[in-house]
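Side project, low priority. Logging it here so it doesn't get lost.
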Amino acid sequence: MTIKRMEHVSVVVDDLPAAIAFFTSLGMALEGEAPVEGDWVNRLCGLEGVQVDIAMMRTPDGHGRVELTKFRNPDLVGAEPSSAPLNTLGLRQIMFAVEDIDDTVACMRHAHGAELIGETVQYEDKYRLCYLRGPAGIIVALAEELF
């Protein structure tokens, strides 16, 4: 048994338009939006009365996708503070390769109020790296290739 590919990463958000705008500013494209509900979703999620709105975002190369999910029902549950640090258990961040890390950070801070976590650092002569926190506490890592 082997994995064929990674299909997508799902991120639960409290403000779907803000999350779409955030990922669009990073360069992702909106593939589509749809409401989802019904018995099959309830069974899949192990919850009753599931009603969600989803937006599928695609990376410019067409290989990566992020599903943004806004629950209308049941109510959202906060499992951790939205400002949880990077060493909190669980899925913490998604990394994207960018052309100009300084420009990307400036754009995301200005347009979306994203916060730089720590500093932008250089790893050997290979990458410049940083973490940004966006809407709903989403953490994205950015990597600028130096080679």
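Brief comment: Helices lie at 16-25, 39-45, 101-112.
Revisit when time allows.
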